[in-house]
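Hi everyone,

Forwarding the result from last night's run.
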Amino acid sequence: MQAKDLKPGMRVECQQGVAEVIEVDKAHNTAIIENMSDHKRININCNDLEDQPQLHTGCDLYY
């Protein structure tokens, strides 16, 4: 993905698993994400993130 496609609160998938976007740095094409399983925050290149539309905020309310 590209930084321009990300926004805070979005859920994405990366090598570490499912994460929530906390902050996006468009100038450096990086984002701070929080892992949903252990709540650790890391700075990651946006190219390493994959959009997963099924992970949108509130999707757990349907199941």
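The chain has a mean pLDDT of 87.

Cheers,
N.
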